[in-house]
Amino acid sequence: MATRNPRREALRILKDFKIAPASATVPVISRFEETEPRGVTRVTSLVYDAVRYILVTDDTIEDDVQSLKELIETSYPGLKGEAVRNPNERGFDTYGLPYKFRDVYAFKVLPKTVRLDRELAARFPDFTRATIQKYIKAGYVKVNGKVVAKPSADVSDVSEITLETPEKADFSDKELPILYMDDSVIVVNKPAGILTHSKGVMSDEFTVADFFRRYTAHGLDTNRPGIVHRLDRDTSGVIMGARTDEAAQSLKKQFANRSVKKSYIAVVDGTPKLPEAVIDLPIGRNPSAPSTFRVDAAGKSALTTYKVLESDGQRSLVALKPKTGRTHQLRVHMQYIGTPIAGDRVYNTKKSSDRLYLHAEMLELTLPGSERRTFAAAVPEEFHKKIHA
Fold first, then answer.
1. What is the predicted pLDDT for the residue at 370?
2. Catalytic residue among 117, 157, 210, 232
3. For this structure, is 232 an active site residue?
4. What is the pLDDT of residue 167?
């Protein structure tokens, strides 16, 4: 028994309706899909010559256009168009053609204009709309053979649209210093300048998440495999990753309920008025610069303990312990008390520096299914040199 070829059958029907010429071949059909909304009924959607057609094989319609539209509505709601007349009848408006002992109908769909990013999101549901917009702006999308770089551009829903995603960069030769690893977690010493994870699929730079991907089964379908907390790009030091979903759940819970203890070392410009103190000031997003934060009475509570370890009058080495985990918390708090962290390009306008002098020195938490542990990364030598420069 011969195997059924749906595309070949669809092309045969197009030819019978005189829509396609006798010389047409299967490759001229695109965006082909077939459904069976009821029993012996078959509904096929395809695009031929930049026009979308719905082909319906059914024995109950009995040449009634309204019944045809109602059946199509069950599989493709909201389509507008017209039934294609039987080309073999002269003087009569009939629509059905006999095909393999049943009747077949062709419905020509009226094209509609849609935004390019919305149409791509419908055609490529595995990508978020934000990702699709980035691809469009980067020039990876062609409409009818021409690059279109504007997400809001109007296109026809039957346009030929191609998306050529960039190849993922190979980071197999990149390494990070591993401080500890077991079956549940991995701990590394992140150098300054490396992102914890990419901000989207367009990123082509090495991140901590790229390194964790080799060792984890958690979040592999995202751009954050293994990630349970983060450090700013310019902050160095201890960062932990989860190797399993169960470990990720345990670690995220500890970070959320603030049972994780963190300690940082920083070099700040100037010397705090008090050798040690608690900074209890709420932090909120800065409306005039939405990517930054500031001390704000209407913001979220933020608590930081600091202690001066060493000072030469111009700069000070301080230990910082955040009790909360607000974005940019340490940087905002130290700037607010008049001793911004050296090298902070956002919150310190006093002097330029070769790096942000903030280092995550210690992380203490309970390992999944195990005991409480502390992990430490030695303070970079340049921190001490900065004080005595």
1. 85
2. 232
3. yes
4. 75
